[in-house]
Amino acid sequence: MKNGKRKWLCILLAAILLSTALINFDPKIKAEKFVGRWGKAIEEGIASGTGVPAGAGDFVGNDEMIQFTLSARGFGSQTSYYGVYYAYEDVPHTFQYGDWELTEIREGVWEWQGGGDNHGLTEKIRDHWYYFEMYF
User: Fold this and answer.
1) Residue 76: CA atoms inside 13 Å, Cβ hemisphere, count?
2) Which stretches in the chain have pLDDT values below 70?
């Protein structure tokens, strides 16, 4: 009987570890966690003029948005980027504010096509905050 219980305990533990690993590697969940942790502090920094708080990570920005790339997969021309951005006017943008047309494919989700096989999508997380995926 002890071996049977031990076996099921090991299976349960493996399932918990696998599901935790999958959640931590899902770029959209990672983006939502980032906004949950840093969103308010970043918004307050923008409003007060002090900027992005130290520790929030690397970012690029202009007068329309601040973008945080949270993960990348692949190598060279096969690289994909995932992250979030804060849009000052609460409108969606393309990756690093490129000049490509956004097409809404369902409510709150837009896709775009760049030159060659470059493409991506952006999805609204909450007011002013958007998740993005960029594929080269």
Assistant:
1) 1
2) 1-2, 7-24
Q: Which amino acid is at 66?
A: I
- Residue 9 is predicted with a pLDDT of 66
Element (H, E) at 67: strand 65-73
SS3 assignment, position 135: strand
* 3-state SS, residue 101: coil
CB 87 within 8 A of CB 130: yes
What span, in angstroms and rounded, lies between the C-alpha atoms of 43 and 88?
10
Residue 88 gets the label, from left (phi > 0), alpha (psi -120 to 50) or beta, of alpha
Strands 129-135 and 80-87: antiparallel
